[in-house]
Amino acid sequence: MAATIVWLRQDLRLHDNPALHAAVTRGAPLVLVHVLETAGPWRPGAAMRYWLHENLAALALELQRHGQRLLLLRGDARRELARLREACGADALFFNRRYEAHGSAVDVALEADLADVCEVRSFKGHLLFEPEQLRTGGGTPYRVFTPYYRACLQQPVPAEPLPAPRRWPAAAPAPQALALAALELEPRIAWAGGIAARWPAGEQAAHVALDEFIDERMRDYSRDRDRPALAGTAGLSPYLCIGAISARSCWHAAHAAALRERDAGQASASEAWSRQLVWREFAYHLLHHFPHTPTQPFRTEWEAFPWVDDDEALRRWQRGMTGMPLVDAGMRELWHTGYMHNRVRMVVASFLCKHLGLHWLSGARWFWDTLVDADLANNTLGWQWSAGCGADAAPYFRIFNPVSQSRKFDPAGIYLRRWVPERASLGDKAIHDPAVRVAGYPAAMVDLAVGRQQALARYADLPR
């Protein structure tokens, strides 16, 4: 019997993997493959390459337990998959959809390439709602989150997550592929220890993280989510990004928790987190309908905005040496762990784009290279929202004050002391104030009041 190829991309898991489930149900021998694509404008950054290596290793080990092999290829996906199909005599190619412009174009072209020799099917596996599924009353894509969120709540409940396969077809004979090390995803200099310590890889680790969040932290999510010194967030974005867990698994876990809360007569603690899952959906909705936004502003009046060009200021921001304690703490957390608390992400982005006046794309590219959850849709929406040029960015003149944010969300300075140890000996009030100088820590790059006024002056020339 001819084989079925399953092309694994942002879905490195066995549970709730529609393409894999359909291939197993089909019953033909399986060829499971990941292609490290070498073309395209947004290839994985350094942190994501390391994270991909670890999750491919975890998936390969799990597949081996089921008598399967994960083939690894590198190059142009259309060429490599056409060669693979011919070599193993496959008559079907299944994969879960992706939504960025380049990847979508490759998938469409591949389907056309193989239409005469192979069944090619794509499945909904990365999102709760397809981007084409939701439109405004006027038939246009949504541009503002709140009405999009309400529309999502009116949709049928997302289907239950699919189980992992229990009975597997035989693995099909397949040609020799690359060893994982040959993909050269790991750094040549061992800088990823902090990422490894913070983020155990693989599907099992993802589900453990989900269960721990639901059982131990979701009740206090609304209260603790903005406190960077606390483990108050779900901590699932790296797993969602790489596909070690599905959005449906997260959604239904939250829904089940809400039912338990209701049955116990408790107020629901799950809605705030479910709303964040829909924010992720909104990001993909925008990426699909406005594919230019990873590099161009959503709001066209920003195309001629007078961004500041200052390489030294960008370097200081990247290295956590701005002299603004909360900004520096966030940038150092990012460098060490491949992650930054979401509240702090907003603060550091606002500081870069508004107080320093640097282009949002400089920040987006740095995050792309250093985040283990470097998701193009979320990264684009977040940076354009922070800069003021994106969807749902009103008021565009919102400017976060890093000192007041620090005092509000890290009042005892616990987060600052961890990541900016130069200031650890200062008291709870002084530690937030950049005017309080300590040896070995730089002076503030900009006066916050002056930077705010300069930003507002730049905004004054924007068309209304």
What does this structure look like?
- The chain is an alpha/beta fold and 464 residues long.
- The chain folds into three domains: 4-125, Rossmann fold, CATH 3.40.50; 127-160 and 202-289, Serine Threonine Protein Phosphatase 5, Tetratricopeptide repeat; 300-459, DNA Cyclobutane Dipyrimidine Photolyase, subunit A, domain 3.
- The chain has helices spanning 18-26, 46-65, 77-88, 101-114, 145-153, 193-198, 203-217, 221-224, 237-242, 247-263, 271-289, 311-318, 325-337, 342-355, 360-370, 376-387, 402-409, 414-419, 448-459; strands spanning 4-7, 30-37, 70-75, 92-96, 119-123.
- A five-stranded parallel beta sheet has the order 3-2-1-4-5, with helices on both faces.
- Helix 2 links the parallel strand 2 and strand 3.
- Helix 11 (271-289) crosses helix 16 and helix 15 packs antiparallel against helix 16.
- The mean pLDDT is 95.
Judged by helices, strands and strand pairing, the structural class is alpha/beta
Number of strands: 5
* Elements, N to C (H/E): EHEHEHEHEHHHHHHHHHHHHHHH
CATH class of the largest domain: Mainly Alpha
Mean pLDDT: 95
Specify the overall morphology. Answer: globular
**Continuous helix count:** 19
**What's the CATH H-level superfamily name of the largest domain?**
DNA Cyclobutane Dipyrimidine Photolyase, subunit A, domain 3
Reported CATH architecture of the largest domain: Orthogonal Bundle
Helix content: 40-55%
Strand order of the largest sheet: 3-2-1-4-5
The CATH topology name of the largest domain reads DNA Cyclobutane Dipyrimidine Photolyase, subunit A, domain 3
Question: What Rg is obtained from the alpha carbons, in whole angstroms?
Answer: 23 Å
Number of domains: 3
Low-confidence stretches: none
